[in-house]
Amino acid sequence: METGLRDEIASLTVEHLELVLIAMCIAAAISIPGGILLTRRAGMRRWVLGFANILQTIPSLALFGFLIPVPLIGGIGKRTAIVALVLYALLPILRNTLVGILGVDPAVRESAVAMGMTGRQILWQVELPLSIRTILAGIRLAAVATIGTATIAAAIGGGGLGVFIFRGISTLDTGLILAGAIPAAAMALIADEGLGWLERKLSPV
Hints:
- This protein is mostly helical.
- It has helices at residues 3-40, 42-57, 60-67, 78-102, 106-114, 119-149, 162-171, 174-202.
- Helix 6 runs antiparallel to helix 8 (174-202).
- It is elongated and about 65 Å long.
């Protein structure tokens, strides 16, 4: 493999990782508090989850395209790509946060109340520790999916490993397609295994 190609693979891999990390941090910062809020606001669940489900049904390339003309968040480049990736990552984290907290045994929650714990204490000391495995499973699903979806970012100038894939498709060069696909697949496997290990490590059971 030529030195120039190796350097470009390394550079685009780092760029791809940056897209994924930024999108995942934003999605988690929105979805985890949002999921906690939905456990306290039953009336909002249908509408919020419905909206997140609709976002998941939009084809990824179409969503990237839809966002381009949107003021402030649209345009060509990384910003639009990150917004699209965040939208795709919301549902798994949101849903798993909601399911995890609602799945806490009511008897455990009642015992905490009987001990005089406040709502905030119950959340931080009881509900979140007991639901952490489910929440991390949602983050794991979102991370793996986001790594794959991020390859589409190259179509709107977002960079990442998709640059090789689109370049390979346009020139019918299988080597270039593999130069983008193999690092992306490896990144997804590492994320899946790493977050799976963390999920098991932090599980209270």
